[in-house]
């Protein structure tokens, strides 16, 4: 199994986090993610200890993880020059973490997306240093993925042959989603659908290079379930189809999603909408809302052939990440 969606928070001190100068300043206290002086979330050693992660992977049968930063670490609210320094430091720490077993831990870099030029430079540096992909949020403040600067950055990723993992963060309407983890249960799904639909309905996919590899986390959020609504709106309203020459369902071949939907029936719908070649195992490891038994939902999904299960559990991610069979088996 290859897990496309697994997070890391490498050891970063309070003093090192000050480079972000008030923009969240995330750092790691043993057993606790911190934001400035505030406790943010209790965490387990797998998040910062590569040995503990590899032991967990052994227990659950995961051969390879694509390791991406915890979204709290993006630093998008910081001044661009500070964010660039921060991302370089985080990326170095991720590389050091993955060096514990480079055949099994695949590093994804993060970038100062608030400055697309600096973000592109960060990708080039990270690729040269050994990162195998890029991890970004689904928006930067009020700018969605169809922002001209973000699109230029995605074009750069395509030129660099760097796949892009898109994760929801900084969820909408926090004043209406208080308690019960509603930002994670409702906001993340909505943010992810918003990211996908802005790329489709803006016509961005018509302009982005066809070799761009994009994956949206959490099964693409609400996208698959509400795709019929989007297609219906495209057919009936010219303001919906103004910039998109084809209905939303025509673009499912332009991106991937992970399998983190936690219900075999939901995964069946996701595969029907996206195709078995566009879904990859994703667990959200090592967080409590992640898939506790990696691959269980894929194995329980009705109607999949053995070849389709194998593709979702690992083959699709190997192609997405550009991994060779010899590297996976090493």
UniProtKB/TrEMBL annotation:
Keywords in alphabetical order: Decarboxylase, Lyase, Metal-binding, Zinc
Leading EC class: lyase
One Pfam family hit: Amidohydro_2
Pathway membership: Secondary metabolite metabolism; quinolate metabolism
Annotated ranges, domain Amidohydrolase-related: 2-323
EC number: 4.1.1.45
Gene3D superfamilies, alphabetized: Metal-dependent hydrolases
Domain of life: Bacteria
Bilayer-spanning residue ranges: none
SUBUNIT field: Monomer.
Family statement: Belongs to the metallo-dependent hydrolases superfamily. ACMSD family.
Protein name in the entry: 2-amino-3-carboxymuconate-6-semialdehyde decarboxylase
Species this chain originates from: Nonomuraea typhae
Lineage: Bacteria, Bacillati, Actinomycetota, Actinomycetes, Streptosporangiales
């Amino acid at each position: 199994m290859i897990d496309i969606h697994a997070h890391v928070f490498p050891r970063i001190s309070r003093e090192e986090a000050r480079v972000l100068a008030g923009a969240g300043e995330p750092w790691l206290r043993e057993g606790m993610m911190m934001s400035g002086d505030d406790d943010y979330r209790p965490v387990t050693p797998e998040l910062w200890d590569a040995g503990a992660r590899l032991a967990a992977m052994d227990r659950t049968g995961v051969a390879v993880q694509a390791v991406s930063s915890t979204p709290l670490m993006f630093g998008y609210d910081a001044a661009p020059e500070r964010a660039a320094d921060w991302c370089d430091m985080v990326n170095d720490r991720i590389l050091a973490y993955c060096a514990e077993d480079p055949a099994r831990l695949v590093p994804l870099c993060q970038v100062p997306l608030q400055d697309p030029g600096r973000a592109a430079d960060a990708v080039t540096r990270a690729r040269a240093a050994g990162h195998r992909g890029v991890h970004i949020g689904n928006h930067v403040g009020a700018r969605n993925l169809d922002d001209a600067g973000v699109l230029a950055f995605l074009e750069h990723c395509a030129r660099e042959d760097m796949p892009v993992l898109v994760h929801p963060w900084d969820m909408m309407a926090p004043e209406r989603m208080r308690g019960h983890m509603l930002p994670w249960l409702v906001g993340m799904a909505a943010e992810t659908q918003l990211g996908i639909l802005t790329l489709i309905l803006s016509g961005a996919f018509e302009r982005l290079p066809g070799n761009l590899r994009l994956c949206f986390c959490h099964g693409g959020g609400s996208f698959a379930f509400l795709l019929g609504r989007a297609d219906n709106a495209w057919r009936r309203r010219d303001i919906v189809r103004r910039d998109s020459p084809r209905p939303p369902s025509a673009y499912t071949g332009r991106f991937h999603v992970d399998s983190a939907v936690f219900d075999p029936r939901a995964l069946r719908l996701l595969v029907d909408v996206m195709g078995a070649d566009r879904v990859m195992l994703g667990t959200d490891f090592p967080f409590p809302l992640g898939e506790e038994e990696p691959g269980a939902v894929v194995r329980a999904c009705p109607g999949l052939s053995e070849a389709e299960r194998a593709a979702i559990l690992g083959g699709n991610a190997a192609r997405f990440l550009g991994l060779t069979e010899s590297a996976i088996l090493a």
